[in-house]
Amino acid sequence: MTVCGVIAEYDPFHKGHAYHLQKAREITRADYIICVISGSFTQRGLPALLPAHARAQMALSCGADIVLQLPYAFSVREAEFFALGGVYILNALSCVTHLSFGCERDDLPLLQRAAQCLEHPDAALEEALRNGLDAGLSHAQAQGRALEERLHLPSGALNAPNTALALSYLRALIRLDSPICPAPVQRTGDYHALELQALPSATALRGAILRGDWAGIEASVPASALPILRSAILEGLCPPDGLDSLLRARLLTASPEEMASLPGMGEGLEMRILKAAETAVTRSQLIELIKTRRYTHGRISRALCHALMQINKADLPALPSCARILGFRQGARPLLRKLQEGPFPLVTRPAREAGWEMDIRADELRQIGAGLPRGLTYRQSPVIMP
User: Fold this and answer.
1) Of residues 223, 255, 202, the one with CA closest to residue 46
2) Both ends of the chain: CA-CA distance in Å?
3) Residues 34, 63: contact at Cβ < 8 Å?
4) Residue 194 has what pLDDT?
5) How many CA atoms lie within 13 A of 81 on its CB side?
6) pLDDT, tens digit, 9 for 90 and up, residues 80-135
7) CA dist., res. 55 & res. 74, Å (int)
8) What is the C-alpha separation between 153 and 17, in angstroms, rounded?
9) CA–CA distances in Å: residue 12 to residues 19, 228, 360
């Protein structure tokens, strides 16, 4: 049996994601595809526009067979730990044979060489990395430049967003000594494009949804997933600024010691955030005041999310201890039964399980940001598709 794993966010699911699932199945000849997606907050450090169950249902309508939730402790993290959490879950299921991911380069031998260099750096790579950091580059920029120098590649060859994440997936496979085979799919289009394209970016589609561009939405979302998206929109979305007031209140009452205990802090970032919070009104304004070449938008955004969630560094586990079943197709019941009988715990309703307090808190905050009643999303049963 061939089982292909995919790690994603699908906020929201669009035609580019459907293309990737189709190519992943073709390349690996998979009998089943298991997706691991983020929950109520995404890797950008923002609340998800759509609830996790709706995103899972969209994926199931377009080629996924089982969708699991990546816990908050890994979904709102830098690429290395986002990837490690997802790969660990897939590896722990003991049935996943392949891992497929989109990237700007699908040259697997080159990507694997680069991942090996990063996972086992030599003196030359470490020196090049230090030089980049000393020059004021962010860690991601310095690492990309150092890697290109070490492998004698042209500038920018390995620094594209999806390629950087692909390297993190490959590093996780190496670190876990996993037998899972990587299966890259070359991505087309601009990952950060603000305008809708034939295979759109999630950024562009979120913009279309927020401004009510239904012509653009219908052109960007697979027909089978469109009714699910419509229903989720009617139920209520959580916009990017939905929790700005709550975040501002948290920052204005936080002490320097509390801020220093948050994940992602260091190098004086906590003091920059507290100072900016005195004048900034919105989250976007806050990030613009704080951002430098070293303090990237992503790092700041995730740190602010942890402040909102009141998460300490000590709260983050080294590896996931379980995953939540968000949904599955009827035809995948045999595989699901096998997974539930396996060694890695899968839960259906986190309210009944210990260790899910962080994700329950995230669910409740997203409800607040969407302007919805508290709700009991953490008691929701998995979505079942025909």
Assistant:
1) 202
2) 21
3) no
4) 66
5) 19
6) 999 999 999 999 999 999 999 999 888 999 999 999 999 999 999 999 999 988 88
7) 18
8) 29
9) 14, 11, 21
Q: Which residues contact 358 (CB under 8 A, 6 or more apart)?
A: 71, 72, 73, 309, 311, 315
- Torsion-angle region of residue 267: left (phi > 0), alpha (psi -120 to 50) or beta? left
- What residues form DSSP beta bridges with 116? none
For residue 173, the model assigns a pLDDT of 98
Residues 211, 301: Cα–Cα separation, whole Å: 23
Q: Beta partners for 41?
A: 47
pTM for the structure as a whole: 0.95
Q: In the block, which residue shows the tokens 């994603």? A: 8
Write out the two tokens for 265: 């802090």
Dihedrals phi, psi of 368, to nearest 5 degrees: -60, -45
- Residue 21 DSSP symbol: H
pLDDT tens digits, residue range 125-166?
A: 999 999 988 887 777 778 888 998 899 888 877 877 788 899
Q: Compute the average pLDDT of residues 67-77.
A: 97
Instruction: Supply the DSSP symbol for 313.
Output: G
DSSP letter string over 27-81? Answer: HHT-SEEEEEEE-SB-TTSSB-SS-HHHHHHHHHTTT-SEEEEEPHHHHTS-HHH
- C-alpha 90/C-alpha 299 separation (Å) is 26
